């Protein structure tokens, strides 16, 4: 290879020649961000030319070229191995300059055309000096031929051309008509490139691979595309046009990469990680010395399976109604982890191995497997391994649907049976399981099981999960519960055990109106609901423990009918799993915290006495001595097991940072409730669930690795304590209506996919509405923060300075639009005064129903704008 520094003009001027972007290259992808930076560099060089200063040129980057197989002695053709983005952009800039001056100085426009853009005496594709990859070729050629009358064309090529036309109009100076030529000169003779030219016989594929196989420039799909089309010297054009280009148009690059990974899994490679896709597929081809026909067959099969994969991404494309319903629910569940199994089913159906009815039946097993495990709180951290193994482990000696049923029923798969499901529906805190959209889907399916003659349109309805017996019960609710207590249990403990169970939950569009009102008031609102489950609740005379358990039994019957059970013969592991979960959460207790028997019982769905008996008779349970009575005292029945270190319990607690009050009880402020215990293990499970969409994670090679959630256990507990502190302070200075309005708003925000970030100490508290992932702080954004009063009115604040650093709200017009939407609330008048404090409004305005609706609409708009930031 030879390398030398050159200018754009020296590279492309001279005799007729052509620079060809190979099939394997990604399409043109520069965005306005890169274009703005390039334009700034061009203008800087143009200004230096105007001033006459002798200054160094601007280095733009490298271009790697190799002789094309179509090369001719009289017409050199070069493959652009690297640098196509730069060459395409500069060519479009020169085309924009040519069109900008075409009417005023047509001769100069013709000169630019012939020197940089076209081969005047060549026809067809040879007419163009730069020939982009097929996906961009038609549009690029149209702009090189001349200005298009249709300026609203889509695509990155059209956007880049329009960018330069717009910037040329801005830069034009009527008093100095040569300005545009200085810009041309800056592009052609002031931007330097390092041209690396390969010789014939050099391995261009290896050159490209060494330049781009760093994980920074190209994705696994890009690298594999490069490899495939380098191996198709004679059939590349046909295969690209017939199979690859339609795939590339119908799937994003990330989706295409996922399809390639699924193809490997379906072909039997059940241990490959997605980030190793390129190396794994390359190894498979080279192990068998794949011919050009075999490479073409692989791409043809990828194209066929691409149509099936799109049905997972867009269930509405599935023609069969029963299969479509299952795909839609699994998509709502965000069950990307099941894609290997779902692709296998669709693939076998297309091959004729099973019909649509059996496909739907098999998918019902997949759905049930996920739903039952979530309802029984089986950890999610092995789901990737389970479903990735399905294609390779599916029995061959039985029908596909039956084989999948048997495979998922294996004892080590932990698919809860009917008895376990029924028990968990009755006793377990369902509201703390899974994710918000998953809980909502379970309730939606249960509502559909009533087969109401006028079913609710769930897609249009703004429904949220509602506690019938509220999370913050008033005296009337506690009085009802006191009628149901047994064995000396308090009404508060009974409330803690039952409040989050499925029997006490429903769906409603009037969550804020229901609030924590007495049951009589809720009956009136639920009676007018279009949901059958709400009408049945309203028909009940009272709502206490017996009614909650009775409804739980009814819902359990419906759940068992909706979601098929595993095959018989699977041993029940319910108890050991429950106690294992209790052991996990006790081991995770942060320094300076304790919990009660009732809290731990409510967390696992058991009873306080059973918890006490288990801890007293099970050796080696970490932190068992930090489980105290509800008054914060050591239970009379507590004793050390023979395997424990022993010693004075209070001294051990003090050493662990637990403080004691004057009455001898542990400090109530350090007590972790059932909800706060759920955060300890729920954080880890949610983190794993977030990773389920990335099928590169959770494979056997990295099982057991510490996740980032482990590092945040103590922080999560502190946040939950801050939540309690926040609402305590809010209630101390604001009305109950304001408190409930804020609770409802936070619940709506979480339903929208957001999270709440709690911050506080002994003197202040605040809550931030957040979008984004904890593992990517640079992607976090907060539309509003809330501060309870300390003798002053509680308020919500718009952090405009924070928003300026987060896409898409770097756009000042969007920030202004957000303020305008907030100002629609009665009593709110926000102004952007910079410098100055963040605009704010009092939380008491949320007591008005219409204000809450408007605020939720504004937050929904904010989320939609944020989600579209990468596509705008």
Report on the structure:
The chain has 872 residues and is of the alpha/beta class. Helices cover 51% and strands 8% of the residues. The protein has 37 helices and 15 strands. The chain has a 6-stranded mixed sheet with strand order 1-6-3-4-2-5, sandwiched between helices. Strand 13 and strand 14 form a beta hairpin. Helix 15 packs antiparallel against helix 16 and helix 29 packs across helix 30. It is globular, with a radius of gyration of 33 Å. About 6% of the residues have low confidence.
Taken as a percent bin, the fraction of beta residues is 5-15%
Largest sheet: 6 strands, mixed
- Count of helices? 37
Roughly how many Å is the radius of gyration? 33 Å
Give a brief outline of the structure.
The protein has 872 residues and is an alpha/beta fold. It starts with a strand and ends in a 5-residue tail after the last helix.
């Amino acid at each position: 290879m030879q390398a030398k520094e050159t200018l754009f003009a020296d590279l492309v001027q001279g005799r007729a020649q052509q620079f060809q972007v190979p099939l394997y290259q990604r399409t043109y992808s520069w965005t306005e961000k890169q274009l703005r930076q390039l334009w700034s560099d061009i203008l800087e060089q143009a200004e230096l030319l105007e001033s006459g200063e002798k200054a160094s040129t601007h280095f733009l980057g490298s271009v790697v070229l190799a002789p094309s197989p179509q090369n001719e002695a009289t017409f050199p053709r070069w493959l652009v191995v690297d640098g196509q983005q730069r060459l395409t952009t500069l060519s479009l800039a020169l085309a924009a300059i040519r069109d900008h001056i075409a009417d005023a100085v047509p001769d100069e426009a013709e000169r630019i055309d012939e020197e940089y853009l076209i081969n005047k005496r060549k026809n067809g594709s040879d007419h163009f000096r730069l020939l982009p990859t097929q996906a961009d070729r038609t549009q690029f050629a149209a702009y090189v031929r001349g200005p298009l009358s249709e300026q609203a064309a889509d695509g990155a090529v059209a956007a880049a051309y329009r960018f330069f036309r717009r910037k040329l109009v801005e830069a034009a100076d009527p008093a100095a008509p040569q300005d545009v030529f200085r810009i041309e000169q800056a592009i052609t003779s002031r931007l330097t490139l390092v041209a690396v030219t390969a010789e014939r016989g050099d391995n261009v594929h290896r050159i490209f691979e060494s330049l781009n196989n760093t994980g920074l420039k190209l994705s696994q799909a890009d690298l594999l595309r490069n490899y495939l089309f380098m191996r198709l010297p004679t059939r590349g054009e046909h295969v690209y046009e017939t199979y690859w280009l339609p795939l590339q148009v119908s799937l994003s690059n990330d989706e295409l990469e996922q399809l390639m990974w699924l193809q490997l899994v379906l072909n039997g490679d059940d241990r490959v990680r997605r980030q190793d896709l390129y190396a794994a597929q390359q190894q498979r081809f080279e192990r068998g010395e794949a011919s050009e026909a075999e490479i073409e067959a692989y791409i043809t099969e990828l194209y066929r399976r691409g149509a099936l994969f799109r049905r997972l991404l867009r269930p509405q494309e599935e023609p069969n109604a029963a299969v479509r319903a299952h795909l839609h629910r699994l998509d709502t569940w965000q069950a990307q982890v099941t894609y290997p199994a779902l692709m296998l089913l669709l693939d076998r159906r297309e091959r004729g191995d099973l019909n649509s009815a059996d496909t739907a039946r098999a998918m019902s097993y997949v759905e049930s497997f996920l739903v039952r495990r979530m309802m029984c709180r089986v950890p999610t951290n092995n789901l990737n391994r389970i479903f990735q193994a399905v294609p390779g482990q599916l029995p061959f000696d039985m029908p596909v649907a039956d084989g999948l049923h048997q495979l998922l029923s294996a004892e080590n798969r932990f698919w809860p049976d009917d008895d376990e499901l029924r028990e968990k529906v009755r006793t377990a805190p369902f509201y703390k399981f899974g994710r918000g959209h998953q809980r909502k889907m379970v309730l939606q399916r249960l509502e559909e099981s009533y087969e109401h003659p006028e079913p609710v349109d769930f897609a249009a309805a703004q429904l949220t999960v509602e506690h019938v017996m509220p999370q913050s019960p008033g005296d009337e609710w506690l009085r009802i519960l006191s009628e149901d207590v047994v064995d000396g249990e308090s009404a508060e403990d009974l409330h803690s055990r039952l409040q989050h169970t499925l029997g006490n939950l429903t769906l409603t569009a009037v969550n804020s109106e229901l609030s924590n009102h007495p049951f009589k008031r809720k009956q009136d609102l639920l009676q007018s609901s279009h949901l059958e489950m709400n009408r049945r609740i309203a028909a009940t005379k009272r709502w206490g423990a017996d009614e909650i358990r009775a409804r739980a039994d009814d819902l359990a019957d419906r759940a068992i009918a909706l979601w098929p059970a595993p095959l018989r013969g699977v041993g029940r592991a319910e108890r050991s799993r429950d106690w294992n979960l209790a052991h996990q959460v006790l081991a995770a207790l942060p320094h300076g915290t304790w919990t009660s028997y009732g809290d731990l019982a409510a967390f696992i769905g058991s009873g306080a006495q059973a918890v006490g008996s288990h801890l007293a008779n099970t050796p080696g349970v970490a932190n068992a001595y930090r489980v105290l009575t509800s008054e914060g005292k050591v239970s009379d029945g507590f004793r050390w097991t023979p395997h424990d270190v022993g010693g004075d319990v209070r001294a051990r607690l003090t050493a662990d940072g637990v403080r004691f009050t004057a009455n001898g009880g542990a400090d109530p402020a350090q007590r972790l409730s059932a909800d706060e215990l759920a955060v300890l293990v729920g954080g880890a499970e949610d983190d794993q669930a977030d990773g389920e969409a990335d099928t590169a994670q959770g494979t056997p090679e990295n099982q057991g690795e510490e996740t980032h959630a482990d590092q945040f256990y103590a922080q999560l507990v502190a946040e939950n304590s801050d939540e309690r502190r926040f609402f305590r302070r809010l209630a101390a200075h604001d009305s109950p209506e304001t408190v409930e309005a804020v609770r409802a708003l936070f619940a709506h925000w979480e339903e929208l996919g957001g999270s709440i970030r709690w911050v506080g100490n002994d003197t202040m508290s605040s809550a931030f509405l957040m979008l984004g992932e904890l593992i990517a702080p640079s992607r976090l954004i907060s539309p509003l923060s809330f501060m309870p009063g300390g003798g002053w009115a509680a308020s919500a604040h718009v952090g405009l300075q924070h928003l300026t650093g987060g896409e898409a709200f770097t756009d000042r017009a969007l920030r202004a639009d957000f303020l305008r939407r907030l100002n629609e609330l009665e009593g709110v008048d926000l102004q952007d005064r910079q410098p100055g404090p963040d605009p704010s409004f009092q939380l008491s305005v949320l007591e008005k129903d219409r204000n809450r609706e408007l605020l939720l609409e504004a937050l929904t708009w904010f989320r939609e704008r944020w989600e579209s930031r990468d596509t705008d």
